[in-house]
UniProtKB/TrEMBL annotation:
<dbReference type="Pfam" id="PF00400">
    <property type="entry name" value="WD40"/>
</dbReference>
<dbReference type="InterPro" id="IPR001680">
    <property type="entry name" value="WD40_rpt"/>
</dbReference>
<dbReference type="InterPro" id="IPR040066">
    <property type="entry name" value="WDR31"/>
</dbReference>
<feature type="repeat" description="WD">
    <location>
        <begin position="50"/>
        <end position="91"/>
    </location>
</feature>
<protein>
    <recommendedName>
        <fullName>Pre-mRNA-processing factor 19</fullName>
    </recommendedName>
</protein>
<dbReference type="InterPro" id="IPR011047">
    <property type="entry name" value="Quinoprotein_ADH-like_sf"/>
</dbReference>
<dbReference type="InterPro" id="IPR015943">
    <property type="entry name" value="WD40/YVTN_repeat-like_dom_sf"/>
</dbReference>
<keyword id="KW-0853">WD repeat</keyword>
Length: 109
């Protein structure tokens, strides 16, 4: 079976280190559908939906430890979210760039 964003197709995807969760981000229109969704792969079910981007959520990344994730958007923002509460913990905006299109993290080792 499949998981998805309905009429708004996924633009980004990441899988948790244990392989149990999938995080997706989606294209939208006028602040609708610009979401990040957390899925339980074992149950093939939506766990939580996160809203807050005003344009396409172009990418997403589960951060080390799995309790937070980051999302990027065509609205020129990068947001760090708490997975459980859905709260935005941090936000970075760059008005001089067109949009964020890729995201990654490194350990520094």
């Amino acid at each position: 079976s499949t998981i998805g964003h309905g009429e708004y197709f996924a633009l980004g995807v990441d899988v948790s280190d244990d392989g149990n969760y999938i995080l997706t981000s989606s294209k939208g229109f006028n602040s609708t559908g610009c979401q990040v969704k957390l899925w339980d792969r074992r149950q093939n079910a939506l766990v939580k939906q996160y809203t807050g981007h005003s344009q396409d959520a172009t990418g997403c990344l589960i951060l080390p430890g799995g309790t937070m994730f980051a999302s990027i958007s065509k609205d020129q923002s990068l947001k760090v979210w708490d997975r459980e509460s859905g709260a935005v913990l941090s936000e970075f905006r760059e008005a001089q760039c067109g949009m964020f299109t890729g995201i990654d993290v490194f350990s520094g080792d």
